[in-house]
Amino acid sequence: MNNTVGRAADTSSQPAVGSGGIDSGMPTPDFVLSLRERVGHAPLWLSGATAVVLRQTPAGEQVLLGRDAESGHWGPVSGIIDPGEEPHLAALREVAEEAGVVAVAERLAWVSVTPMISYSNGDQSQYLDHTFRCRWVAGEPYPADGEASEARFFAVDSLPPMPPRQARRVAVVLENRPEARFGAHVGRD
Questions:
Q1: What is the pTM of this model?
Q2: Are 32 and 39 in contact (CB under 8 A)?
Q3: Most CB within 10 Å of its CB: which of 15, 17, 129, 186?
């Protein structure tokens, strides 16, 4: 961790070497790099947070999505929870860092485990993901940190194609159930 309270360590000068985020080769947090020095490419069990940010407009409800700069896939903002960081605060931090938007977490919508992910450099990681239903507060989205090539709101009835895991995270939040889901969801990959 760096000296800034609640912020991730600055990894902008570090290459994306896998294990950087839940679903892509994002810049890798310092604590993961330190673990990798000790365990090499062995599987890591990491905690992640996903923020499905909703905004109400006169035309209807919208969902914030980012287009991953590496894969080109759309999906909700997600990232690794830093050691000692509260999961909901990690989700909100990622929204601010990746999309330049301020949001509040309304509730935990889903806790699930991703399949093992193998990165191109040989690193392997599996994530315990916390998906939060969040409400937009301020800011127009833009690709703030380079992890996304685009960031914008979509009407809930006009969402772009997404990888199945990303689409399920959005679908679970849009169900708007009062209780959180636990474990696998229909169509788990």
A1: 0.84
A2: no
A3: 129
